[in-house]
Please model this.
Amino acid sequence: MRQKHWCGITTKIGTLLSGVFTIIATDLYLIFEQKQLRSSNCTEINQWNKTVTTLINQLLICWSPNIILFLSCITIIISCLLIYSVYAQICRGLVVYIIWIFFYETVNVVVQVLTNNDTGIAEVRAMRWFGLVSRIFMHCFWIFFVTTYAHIIYKSKAKGNIIFYNRRFSAGNGEFPRRKSKIINFPRHYND
Model:
């Protein structure tokens, strides 16, 4: 089977690069966002004077460094699972990666929205949004390779699991009429 190429990359190599990109992007995200996430002030939580939504927002803002660190560690593990799944041709690992990336980026957008008000400098807010949006676009680009490769693996596994696909079964009593030979006249090679 001839592999498809997009942007000069096969689907298998694109899927491997997706895992490598996610590992590097997650590490860079943790390095660059560490100061912004740790700068939130969580000492003045007054539970009696606030509404439930304000308390939930304050709780998410205070726990955002821990949430991001936990999700980033899980993302690195799932990216390593993706790389192994490409090597072993396991379709489930690729599907888990696709689902996890959507969840991970959704949580990052929510944390970005909630912690964006704490940043006083407009340039820092713009850089944080630029980094998040560019990472999301790059994940969308690489997810295309992952889904295509998962589809290729699924189709190849499905073809391998079908046994006796073209075999005909009769509903009759089991007796099949003999086929007539396409050669009508057989020459006789013996002497009478």
